[in-house]
């Protein structure tokens, strides 16, 4: 299967594109965001990497047809989990938070929580492909990101907000001038996961409090999340507040403990050579 068949995209205007993997039919299917700038272009999250994302972007002219346009394309992972980082190896410039650099550089499929089944792939990307052979390929990040770093696209800037909880290196990217928040898996319109390896509930609560602060200070109008559909500031406030209220309860703590134990065992079994 070609890259042209594997992916699909939609233009949201202003040089922003929403890309998805058509045949990865799972709740784990991550949104891929492409943002054009006058100085630099950015891909935010890269999906599984089963087909060439750069090839798809180029073939569909998503960066424009101007032959003089030679902007560097930077791929940023909002965190290292497989559904967001699997395609990073296809890019020359790769950014991730410092806390997860080693996971990517070592191809640590435990920390990237690599978990894929044949039933999630509606059409195999190549003859004989099987999910059990899938691994996140090691990649050495060229841009090691920290809280407060600014990624200058020329006509807009993205500020790195370190928001741990879902994973230790989870980040959001905030376009302050346009009040856009690329939230990764810190928050999306679904159940927020805090029971994976390197998840931390106390950090997640702090991150949600910070998200509420962004809404209260009117710094966010629209959220472009790691999964599902976009939503607005009111929904962001509601989702963040709901997590804080739920996370402190005894049932939630017990559930988190059980799921963390089970997920750890499953990931170790499926990634026997991981450094875990």
TrEMBL record:
Metallo-beta-lactamase domain sequence ranges: 29-227
One Pfam family per UniProt: Lactamase_B
CDD domains with a match to the protein in the record: MBLAC2-like_MBL-fold
PANTHER family per UniProt: ACYL-COENZYME A THIOESTERASE MBLAC2, METALLO-BETA-LACTAMASE DOMAIN-CONTAINING
Descriptive protein name: Metallo-beta-lactamase domain containing 2
Source species of the chain: Xiphophorus maculatus
Lineage: Eukaryota, Metazoa, Chordata, Craniata, Vertebrata
